[in-house]
C-alpha cells in the first residue's frame, strides 16, 4: 500500500494530459477513457494517464455515442473505459461491439474506485491485462459519499428529513444521517474505515469548505491515527465529499 501511495503521489505531480487524445500524442498500446463529474477530477485523471475524459456523473450520464467517439479518438487500438457510475456501466459495455478497437470496461462505480484503478494502469500492457489488474485495484476500495437530502424519507438508518446531511456507502446504502455535514461525514467514516484500512482518499466537491475538510481530517487523525490521508479537489457538484478507503 505504501508503494501504491507513493506511485500515485508521483503521478499527480506530472503534467496534465489532454482531455481528448489525438494522433499528435504518443501512441500507446492501451488508452483509458474515463467519465468525470468535475473539472478537478478530470485533471486528476489526466495526471494518472487518462487520455480521454467525458463529463458525466450521477445526474448526467454520457451516451453510448459519446463514449464511442472518445474511444475512436484514442491513439491506441485497445481502450479501457472507466464509467465511474453504476448507471453508466451498461452504456459503456455496448461500445466494444460498435468499434474495430478492442474495448474493455472496468466496472468502476465511483470516482475513488477509478483513482485506485489508475494506479495499476500500464499504457504498454494489453487491455485484457489492464482490465484484470485495474479491476482488482478498484474492488479493493470501499467508497462513501456525503450529500444533502432533498426530501423526507425513511431508511434502514432512520428517518431522513429534507435538508439533513446523509452518508451513503456503496453496498450498504445510507449509513449516516445528521443535521451537520461534519457529523454525517464522521459517522460515515466510522462505518467505512475498519482496522485493515491504510489509506483514505478525500475528494472535495464544489460545496466543500476548508473548515469542513479540516474537521474531517481532525476526526480521522484522532479516531483512525494509523490511516494516511490524501485530499484532492474534484469539483464535483451535489456531493461535497467523496471518500475512498484502501
Automatic annotation (TrEMBL):
Q: Which residues cross the membrane?
A: none
Which residues lie within the region annotated Disordered? Answer: 1-25
Q: Provide the Fatty acid kinase subunit A-like C-terminal domain boundaries.
A: 1-246
* Classification via Pfam families: FakA-like_C
Q: Which PANTHER family match?
A: DEGV DOMAIN-CONTAINING PROTEIN DR_1986-RELATED, PHOSPHATASE PROTEIN
Please report the name of this protein according to its UniProt entry. Unannotated protein
